[in-house]
Design a protein that fits this description.
- With 187 residues, the chain is an alpha/beta fold.
- It has a single domain, classed as Rossmann fold (3-Layer(aba) Sandwich), CATH 3.40.50.
- The protein contains seven helices and nine strands, in the order βαβββαββαβαβααβα.
- Strands 2-7-1-8-9 form a five-stranded parallel β-sheet, sandwiched between helices.
């Protein structure tokens, strides 16, 4: 059976750090590259960090049923997973690793049930999340407040995931993630 691991979290919860660690741990994981309509940031490359699509192209692919899941996360900003990504990764004999928004995570789990394990990374508190976002120094105050407001909504989805990791201590969170993957992948 082809398997998948689904990670979701509010921005700043530490999800990317945990995913980066797990990709180096020998679990046979491969990162699923999402498609998006947002512009490139910095040195991002098409087909590496994301598949960068125009809104028209994204909507055409929606009409052609080319997505497993997609969401308009922000006004005018689509994110989604192309069906071709699963095929690409599973043909290599790898486990698909998703980094998706909470709605996408819930939808993927519903669709793939026992093939998938969904993990929600939770910050210790909203205030801690705000502090992490400020310390990143990558967003304006207005953007941080927008992300914090969205995080408060996203936290309501945590109970719909198979597992919740509270990232209060990174070392503990990494160990917990490794243990969850070991258990799920050995089934």
């Amino acid at each position: 059976m082809c398997k998948m691991i689904i990670f979701s979290a509010p921005s700043g919860a530490g999800k990317s750090t945990i995913i980066s660690h797990l990709l180096k741990c020998g679990f046979g994981l491969e990162f699923s590259i999402s498609a998006t309509t947002r512009p490139h940031r910095g040195a991002e490359q098409n087909g590496v960090e994301y598949y960068f699509l125009s809104v028209d192209d994204f909507e055409r692919r929606i009409a052609n049923s080319e997505f497993i899941e997609f969401e308009q996360v922000y006004e005018g900003r689509y994110y989604g997973t192309l069906k071709s990504e699963l095929t690409r990764i599973w043909e290599k004999g790898k486990v698909v690793l998703f980094d998706v928004d909470v709605v996408g995570g819930v939808n993927l789990k519903k669709k793939y049930t026992n093939q998938a394990m969904s993990i929600f990374i939770k910050p210790p508190s909203v205030e801690c999340l705000r502090k992490r976002l400020i310390e990143r120094s990558t967003d304006s105050v207005a953007e941080i407040e927008k992300r914090v407001a969205k995080a408060e909504q996203e936290l309501n989805y945590a109970s719909q995931f198979d597992e919740i990791i509270v990232n209060d201590n990174l070392s503990d969170a990494l160990q917990q993630a490794e243990a969850l993957l070991t258990r799920f992948l050995s089934k």
